[in-house]
Amino acid sequence: MxxxxxxxxxxxxxxxxxxxxxxxxxxxxxxxxxxxxxxxxIWIRFSRARWPQGRQQWLHLAVTGVLMxxxxxxxxxxxVKGGMGSGLAALVVGLQPVLTALWVSWAGLSGDAATEHKxxxxxxxxxxxxxxxxxxxxxxxxxTGSEVTLLTLGCTxxxxxxxxxxxxxxxxxxxxxxxxxxxxxxLGAALLVTLPLVFLETEAIxxxxxxxxxMAWSVLALTLGGSSLLYLLIQRGxxxxxxxxxxxxxxxxALMAWxxxxxxxxxxTLLGTALTALGVSLVVRPARPKAA
Length: 292
Description:
74% of the residues lie in helices and 0% in strands. The protein is mostly helical. The chain has one domain.
């Protein structure tokens, strides 16, 4: 399941590159949410999946839907539409495990009172390395008028914060539920938030095989497959263990983008990605138990 999730999740940045030349980002996402809800409702109807019980759980699921779908995907897709490469967008969002692990350690969510409000020196070192690797890649491309601008960087940071908070919120407040009905509720909330913003976009949709293929993959593979796997992984595992999978996404995405779009993988990019991956691994690595 984790390996399949990483491969599917990495294609999300690639699909954005494929679909966005033919549609505005929020319009594409609103269509994706609506079609995904339709598919989930059919699935729920024939499988007789149970809906979550109680208004409070519906509210918690709606909050996670706004953060992990509308906030995360909206930020990434607007950034890619603005010119940011798929690999770089994945690298910025790939800092999520660092933020998650630091918050879990600081807030004592591991359940160990002795570690409450403590971030180890190793984790601080990992944070510095992760940020350093990211800055190494971003600084070279900032201000060129292509990949990195204040808009594209701001959107990816917003996406990073959204999925980080959404993951922690879901782990803390959302009770175990059927993944199909839970996803339908999350997507419904994301659609309600995204729809008003669609009317601010003026670009027309170009209906061609590339657009329709990107939409089909977004609905069937990314939402019904990837989002469902993420929900199950968060439900079954610790927050830091789940998000540690995501630091494998940037190099996977960069390789896909190089093969499909010719996005360059320079020495600086490789070094920055390696530093970021090393930093994330230091942050999320569990501490060794002390000898008795």
